[in-house]
């Protein structure tokens, strides 16, 4: 038997066949075919269906063995009872990877289903076919044209994400993309029968395409392997782990979801810290940390400059920063003198955080003062509040807010320090304001600016990404 | 001297004059006039400006004494140096309330400015003129046509909000409105020289228009009065307090913002709990609690039914509920038997939280199972995940998602128990999905459904609103 195929082949297969491809547009069996087409997969795509001649415009084949060329990956949407036969065919054809979208195995709690899963595992080993899944949506790798839904973004990047849950992977991809994340290798490995998150982490550690790694885990099939993979990955790259199933109810839910043994929450936190990973406790925290790790320069210290928004926001920003162990240093003398030169009445009043509302009529803006602060070499990082609700109330709101955000983006891109921008969710019922906030956020995120929905979330993420003294 | 006027007059003045009304469209002096017009104030509006004949289509008067009829409220946009003279005029005219939008007093840290503030306070007492502010945007009370920005919602309701910060008040009103909150009496009292938050709380306690009270405070001018007002209000209504300036940096920022002495954070938390108020530590928490308190039936217990979203969401929901001290009870036998009747294979697999992704093809939906759960009289409350990202991927996403949300809304409105709906922020770059999520959320919130941006935030708010056993 040849040695097991490299994961390189999984992520860049020459040809893909979809077993259980369907003519029904509302089915996974058609989604996989259309996803490969939509994401621009350049190899051959073979829909397999003994009762169809054409699916999504492609000729259909009755079985994988009937396919004329080599196949590196078979995606199965067949029911659980058909998998042993499919495995036999893959083995005879020399297919190195079989991805089982197919579920309803051990996660159902049914003993027969669990036994079938074990037989599949043994048969796959014997035939030299590696298994991704079962009970997982598989691969999204836009650089290779792979994906599990036709509406996933075609634009790729360096963020890898491993997810035990399929819907969670979709949410992280779509929401992350709207936040500016650009994904490389994303894997929903489901029950993790053969290709485990530990193996994937070891692979991603050395993968030149991957810059930041996130993962959502409920439990792991192979604790020691996971820890070793995590340590290898975290030694080279930022790794963020969202561990779910921390509670009694969560662990029970995880067992019925992916047959996962969730394990002790405290043990997990200790293990993640020891491996050098950063722990997230919600999808929001995961996304915030991935945005910070992927889009910002490395956070090297805790001295924070804060600007923008009115007085209430400034007080809240100061609280958020200190409660996330960031240090709100006073304005240095050189900045105070620069302010005095333009607006003497403000020089002894303005402070860090910079309250935008006291600057009216002074010729100074919060962005201008933030530029002075970051040039002063006293601060390690910055949080800039857009304060969109203030702009809404002014004439020319669109021009003013876009101008301010452009200046902020230019500062963030030129100053060499992490600048987190705070722009709330689009939380208004006015179509005009909605369009404005959406367009400004899109403009910032597509330029790679790290945007957070609240100053509390920005401060929390920066506080977790910063080194402890 | 007559007794001080009742706050009834402040909230429902017969006529309002704006001192410092301006022909400049980008000024507070014009904003106040246009706000009264936009919000439908039915009394007389008198712009005061000695150098203008007409402002925003209304005849301008040179001074408050030149106004022909009675004036119950003067709003001042004049600079600080002009206030003593304005006060004299108000006193002679018999104006009961003067609102000072005018700032730059003690909050600047300047000794002369602080002294002027004290002289104004003494003069106002002597002349029998009550002062709102200084350094505050004043009143938003849509039922009476009062407001401080023309773009504030005209539709009113029972949610009162007191805010030391003006921009924070604007944010809470606009964002709260998008979440379904409908406001009654909102006051940005700024430095709180005369009309204090304590007095306002005592007033709101007995105000028949007010059902729920929120407040944002940095520090209070009168600690004992605040505590007494808070206790009186919390004895009759839900009161939620966002206390900022909890940290050293936050307290320093508060001093320069509203000259507030922020006080010890621990002392504040203890005081709020003792008074029966609920503490929020961010604007997000404040809004979540006000949404829960205002839009949901009273939360009477902690046994939670959870449904919707995929398996990963279910695990995360279970964690969020338990970590917020809600109890995730298993499905009762009667529900399990109802499931068995329709889908035998699911009866021993499906659980609470209900994983929507395992129901495909069963004829059961997560909403349907949630209906069974709430009918079973085992659960005190529910959290329903919309799972919008799943709908995005299906044909007829619009019809399906709207249908599901309509059913959810009908359940929430008919079951008599609190049902929190989870629909993420509009976090997608697809114009089509954006329009879908925006329209579904608008539809839910305008029907008075409580919508939260994440299951963690929903669980947290419900856990704080529920009684402790």
- State the end-to-end distance of chain A: 53 Å
- State the major sheet of chain A: 6 strands, mixed
- Please give the most extensive interface between any two protein chains, plus how many residues each contributes: A-B, 86 and 86 residues
Q: Taking Cα atoms only, what radius of gyration of chain A do you get, to the nearest Å? A: 26 Å
Q: What kind of assembly state do the chains in view correspond to?
A: homodimer
CATH topology of the largest domain in chain A: Rossmann fold
CATH superfamily label of the largest domain in chain A: Succinyl-CoA synthetase domains
- Describe the strand arrangement of the main beta sheet of chain A, using strand numbers: 8-10-9-11-12-13
E-strand count of chain A: 17
The total tally of domains of chain A equals 3
Q: Kindly state the mean pLDDT of chain A as a whole number?
A: 95
- Rough shape of chain A? elongated
SS class of chain A:
alpha/beta
By DSSP (H or I, 4+ residues per run), the number of helices of chain A equals 17
Strand content of chain A: 5-15%
Q: Which architecture of the largest domain in chain A does the CATH hierarchy give at level 2?
A: 3-Layer(aba) Sandwich
Approximate helicity band of chain A:
40-55%
- Uncertain ranges of chain A: none
CATH structural class of the largest domain in chain A = Alpha Beta
